[in-house]
Automatic annotation (TrEMBL):
Keywords of the record: Oxidoreductase
GO terms assigned for molecular function: oxidoreductase activity
Superkingdom, natural source: Bacteria
Signal sequence residues: none
Domain Aldehyde dehydrogenase: residue ranges: 25-237
Keyword Oxidoreductase: yes
Pfam families in UniProt: Aldedh (PF00171)
Record protein name field: Aldehyde dehydrogenase
Keyword Glycoprotein included in the entry's annotation: no
SUPFAM superfamilies: ALDH-like (SSF53720)
Entries under InterPro entries matching the protein: Ald_DH/histidinol_DH (IPR016161), Ald_DH_N (IPR016162), Aldehyde_DH_dom (IPR015590)
Length: 286
């Protein structure tokens, strides 16, 4: 006897919890062949505001953790992703219409990128910071510090690799993020949120919104408590208007990138959302 399918409704991930959209809206997520896969929450302006509040509350604790601790937490996420390879592979295979082998390659690439970024957690400050030569009996040292709350429009043509490539570098630097997942391929984003919820990542450090980037991004771009905007996946949007809105509150903006792998692993993606603090200290007079 055949079983009755139980359609799943994926929720948002805000402040470490999985709420429904306050608007009650959902949309259908379809497979590459048009078959129904699941329902996903369609985030509203209120959901975006709630996510920013959660991210702001998490910044101090996450940025205040040692770089070594952040690295270990990120490594743990990679371990959990490894344990759920089959689930992510199946989701990508269905959503994108690729073969099982191709989906597996994508999942492995996402895990490898997460590990790559985790390894930079206690190293990037030595590379991007420096001791400056100055005249006088002083030490002058420049060190990178996190920008704060980073809003991200994830790559829209990728289920998992693009999402990981956008989120991980911001976390390495000590930022908290609000990410708008791929509208067409949101299932891996919520599955990643389930991984984060069972990891050591403090609640609010990562907040995942699903729905329409064209609807949600303008609210985040104009939000006064968002410190930076990553538009890596906003190439199809009117991203110039988003940049103008961000300028009203002096946000740092990373523009959309072109190419097959716009969010490829790079140290520049880590330091993009950091601020440089320079400290003077007198040398001993003895």
């Amino acid at each position: 006897m055949s079983r009755l399918a139980v359609p799943k409704t994926y929720k948002l991930f805000i402040g470490g919890a999985f709420p429904r959209s306050e608007s009650g809206r959902t949309y259908e997520v379809l497979a590459a062949d048009g078959a129904f896969l699941a329902n996903a929450a369609k985030a509203s302006r209120k959901d975006a505001r709630d996510a920013v509040v959660a991210a702001r509350a998490a910044v101090a604790g996450w940025s205040g953790a040692t770089a070594y601790n952040r690295g270990q937490v990120l490594y743990r996420i990679a371990e959990l992703l490894e344990g759920r390879r089959a689930q992510f592979t199946a989701e990508i295979e269905q959503a994108e219409g690729v073969s099982r082998a191709q989906a597996t390659v994508q999942v492995d690439e996402a895990i490898d990128r997460w590990v790559w970024y985790a390894g930079w957690a206690d190293k990037f400050a030595q590379v991007s910071g420096n001791a400056n030569p100055v005249a006088g009996p002083y030490f002058n040292i420049s060190v990178p510090e996190p920008t704060g709350v980073v809003a991200i429009v994830a790559p829209q043509d990728s289920s998992l690799v693009g999402l990981v490539s956008a989120i991980a570098p911001a976390l390495v630097a000590g930022n908290a993020v609000v990410v708008i997942a791929s509208e067409r391929f949101p299932l891996s984003a919520i599955s990643l949120a389930e991984v984060l919820a069972t990891s050591d990542v403090p609640k609010g450090v990562v907040n995942v919104l699903t729905g329409s980037p064209a609807e949600i991004a303008p609210w985040l771009a104009a939000h006064a408590d968002v410190n930076a905007l990553d538009l890596v996946g906003a190439g199809a949007l009117d991203w110039v208007d988003l940049e103008v809105a961000a300028a009203e509150t002096l946000k740092r903006v990373l523009r959309p990138e072109n190419g097959q792998d716009a969010a490829a692993p790079a140290l520049d993606r880590i330091v993009a959302f950091t601020e440089t603090k320079t400290v003077w200290h007198p040398k001993s007079l003895r």
